[in-house]
Amino acid sequence: MFIQHSKVPSPLQKVLIEISINLYLRNMEQLLQKIEAYKNEMTAFKVPTAEVLEDFRIKYLGTKGIVKAVMGEMKNVPNEKKKEFGQILNAFKIFAEERFEALKATLVSGDNQTTANIDWSLPGDPIPVGTRHPLSIVRNQIVSIFKRLGFAVAEGPEIEDDWHNFTALNLPENHPARDMQDTFYLNQNPDYLLRTHTSSVQARVMEKQKPPIRIICPGRVYRNETISARAHCFFHQVEGLYVDNNVSFADLKQTLYFFVQEMFGKEAKVRFRPSYFPFTEPSAEMDISCTVCGGKGCSLCKHTGWVEILGCGMVHPKMLENFEIDPDKYTGFAFGMGIERICQLKYRINDLRLYSQNDVRFLQQFTGAV
Ligand code: DAH
Question: Which atom, in ligand 1's list, is nearest to the CA of 237?
Answer without folding.
Answer: 4
